[in-house]
Design brief:
Shape: flat
Distance between the termini: 11 Å
Helix content: 10-25%
Low-confidence stretches: 104-117
Number of helices: 3
Number of domains: 2
Radius of gyration: 17 Å
Number of strands: 3
Strand content: 5-15%
């Protein structure tokens, strides 16, 4: 999936406001099935709504963190453009640009997010 095709909003209000009229209710956190009118990314782009990290909403930490964990698993499953997967052999540590578990570091994401299609 090309870069920019997984977009996450922190908080339901930001996602709901993209509709005209704004959505009265966003049913759940996690991936959404509705794309706002004029959405700039073509299918199969994914939209995720995550719990606001402010802590103001009444929910447990586990409930607040769950959509973040699901999104992290989804992103970890996507290849980074221009980066060949590298797994260390026995007795070797992971390459510097791959965090434990094979996830890209912030440096990788920042460096590849400016690349064109």
């Amino acid at each position: 999936m090309p870069l920019g095709q997984v977009v996450a909003f922190t908080g339901k209000v930001h996602y709901a406001a993209l509709f005209d009229p704004p959505l009265a209710r966003v049913e759940q956190f996690g991936p959404q099935t509705r794309h706002p009118p004029g959405w700039p990314f073509p299918a199969p782009s994914e939209i995720w709504v995550l719990a606001s990290p402010s802590g103001r909403a009444a929910m447990t930490a586990a409930t607040r963190e769950e959509p973040y964990r699901r999104l992290a698993a989804r992103l970890a499953a996507l290849p980074l453009p221009g980066v060949q997967p590298r797994l260390p052999g026995p007795g070797h540590s992971p390459p510097r640009d791959v965090a434990p578990g094979g996830c890209a570091t912030k440096t990788d994401v920042r460096a590849t997010s400016t690349a064109g299609p």
